[in-house]
Amino acid sequence: MSFPPPSRTPWGVRRRSLIVSAASAAVLAGCSTDSGSASGAGSPSLSARARARAARDSEGLLRSYDAVLAAHPTLAERLRPLRAEVAAHAAAFREGAAKEKAAGGSTASAGTTATGSPSASAPEVPADEKSALASLATAERSLADQRAKALLEVPGELARLLAGVAAAGAGHAYLLTKGDQ
Known about the structure:
mainly alpha
């Protein structure tokens, strides 16, 4: 009695399994908790620089919300919860940067960037409310996209924080552009 030749399916499955396993290993390696220890002893770690930039970006967005609220006080009820979340995001990034600095993960130069520039001017605000909301939505969407791209370059904990904040920013952009008030 002769046996039929083996089908090629097991090889295809094994090959796919190998590819999936290799991809999973790469993802897990990208999500490690290493906070950039490969950087020089005197320079801020990758994580510290990313946190400082994220804090600056959130603070810039916060200034945009404040400028729109100052120009259009009738939008306060609608914008107050979104602004509060942006302020919480900025605080979370600053807190993480401060903890990393205290642990010896960065130098003073990274800590000073996390607070934003004192000479930062208030953003220009469109005269009509609809355009002002659209400008905030554009800023939120742009920052969310920027943070989503940064996920590939930062360690696990910070990547999770950036992902959450990017998702919140995308949600804010939707809420700012949906329907009439």
